[in-house]
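cron nightly-structures :: item 1 of 1
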Amino acid sequence: MKKILVPVDFSTPSENALKVAADLAKKNNAQVCVLHVIELAETLFGSEQFNVDDEQIVFFMKMAKKRFAKFMEKDFLKEIDYKDMVDIGPTSKYISEYAKKENVDMIVMGSTGVSGLEEVLIGSNTEKIVRTSPVPVLVVKKKMEDLSIKQVVFASDFDLESLKAYENAKKFADSFDAQLKLLYVNLPGNQFYSTKEIHEQMRKFLHEAEVELNEENVMIYNDYTIQLGVINGANTLKADLIAMPTHGRRGLSHFFNGSIGEDVVNHSTLPVITFKI
């Protein structure tokens, strides 16, 4: 891990994310790229390409840079190699483009989550990045004074296409000397599988990963939805972090409607790291 991208909006959640990114950077001798995107209403500049000479846009840029400089006055950044950037554009799109341009290894974002109509109609930039990012996205929900991760839960349906995500999650857990536990969520109705069937699925999956099935590190959690099962199962296991693969809008196997990764990120109080497959 050589480059970590942290999009910030000067909020407390983005400050929490920046602190986690700084801790990861120290641990990995990595550079932190801190990005603030000004998302202005289209009526301010028209539908054509941004006019950087426009007085209003120049004003917003100057205000943002001034606020950015103040935001970056953090003690935890003093020994960190970082660079900052302010630009204008659609936030989630620009974050994705910047991540690709800078060839970052991970994106760290803060989030408070949303619910109800806001979740359905608006969503959040964090969810959009989780859905589209080709690199791992670590979403931080609250302040973490010490980046201590001892127990990681990898939630999946253990289809072979999730194998790469599992391997990346294991590397991340190993970097903290953390224990990695496997979580399968069993649903009622025609999506119910017996313990024997689930263990056989996990055994085939781990055989490809050249890892033996250790039933002590496996949890089968019964719940009404995948999202609830992942969150409740992780809390039952007293996990410090949830790791999971995401397909974006395609869903995972029988995870049918929508992106489970987005739903878990939105509602979990634990930090969540997602791996695109």
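cron nightly-structures :: done
The first helix runs from residue 12 to 28.
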